[in-house]
Design a protein that fits this description.
This protein is an all-alpha fold. Helices cover about 80% and strands about 0% of the residues. The protein contains four helices and no strands. It is globular. The two termini are about 30 Å apart.
């Protein structure tokens, strides 16, 4: 079941990537969307994200994601 769910998740991200790119332009590649999903998992509190996003850009958040994923 886990492999089927993983395949389904990849399909959804790929499909969503195409739809968002057609509607809004670049920035919604499969890898970007996967990063956005990881971001939402690691930073579930919208208030904190809102506060931080006033001072940090997406590139800062992607760096934080890389650090946090490697953190023990």
């Amino acid at each position: 079941l886990n492999q089927k769910r993983a395949d389904y998740g990849r399909e959804i991200i790929q499909t969503l990537s195409g739809k968002l790119t057609r509607e809004f332009g670049t920035g919604f590649s499969r890898s970007n969307l996967a990063g956005m999903v990881r971001f939402a998992e690691l930073f579930p509190d919208g208030k904190i994200v809102h506060t931080l996003s006033a001072q940090l850009g997406w590139s800062h958040f992607t760096l934080l994601l890389r650090v946090m994923i490697r953190w023990p």
